[in-house]
Amino acid sequence: MQKLHPIIETKRLTKDFGALRAVNEVNLEIYSGQIHSIIGPNGAGKTTLFNLLTGFISPTYGNIFLKGENINGFPPYLLSKKGVARSFQITSIFPSLSVFENIRVSVQSRKKESLNFLKHYRQLRETAQKANEILEFIGLSEKSNTIAKNLSYGEKRILDIGIALATDPEILLLDEPVSGLAAGDIEWMIKLIKKISEKITIVLIDHNIELVISVSDVITVLNQGSIIAQGTPDEIQRNDQVHKAYLGGY
Predict the structure, then answer these.
(1) How does pLDDT run across 190-209, given as a tens digit for each residue?
(2) Rounded CA gap, 129 and 27, in Å?
(3) Burial zone of 229 (CB within 10 Å; 0-12 exposed, 13-18 middle, 19+ buried)
């Protein structure tokens, strides 16, 4: 039987901020084709772990591997080229551009022609076609010509994910994708996450336990920077230590 290898692996991954240890010797394996959620109470180290995995900060010690390659110290732009994409809790769209242009610019960043920004986009047929395909995929085709700042909050969150998808990632890290969304937009986001996961590995952090339980293949629970449990949604719901630290009476 062929042994599976993780797409992302950490070994003794640790991050200190002065006297505060935000991430404490985390050993984590994330496998291709899964939705792997990371949960925990406020201050558990989830966002710090995300920032480490995406190159926004460097570890104090320990290692991060992407498909077996040590990526310690790699900046976000280089990790993006290697197939790691991230959406933020605070959207990172271009507010003055149209929805289409937001996606087109991201698609173009992956093409050799991206060095020639004076070339009119209508000549870049492949780029335009892919941008339209992504808009269709995320459900924003009808908003293609809308200036991004005029979108609803939920639509902006969806567009932010579309921008990440336009970079052709192998793994997508989602930082609280349903935070602040209305009920209808949460349903939209859940459907989109499930659809994305058919093609791309997803790492998810969110406080919405119902979302996490409903979409995850694997859940890792952090508390005070350390992993206290990992398993399927059913296993996590039955874990007494997780209940004490986080889930309460869930």
Answers:
(1) 999 999 999 999 999 988 88
(2) 41
(3) buried
The beta-strand segments (E) located in 99-161 are none
Q: In the chain, pLDDT over 90 holds for what percent of residues?
A: 68
Please measure the distance between the N-terminal and C-terminal CA atoms of the chain and give it in whole angstroms: 38
pTM over 0.90: no
Q: Strands 8-17, 61-66: parallel, antiparallel or unpaired by DSSP?
A: antiparallel
Q: Tokens at residue 23, please?
A: 């991430």
**Half-sphere CA count of 214, side-chain side, radius 13 A:** 13
User: 31 and 6 in contact (C-beta within 8 Å)?
Assistant: yes
Please state, in angstroms and as integers, the Cα–Cα distance from residue 236 to each residue in 7, 182, 229, following that order. 23, 27, 7
Residues 6+ apart with CB under 8 A from 239: 221, 229, 231
Residue 207: both structure tokens together: 């406080």
- The domains found in the chain, sorted by start residue, are 1-83+171-182+200-250 (3.40.50.300), 91-168 (no CATH)
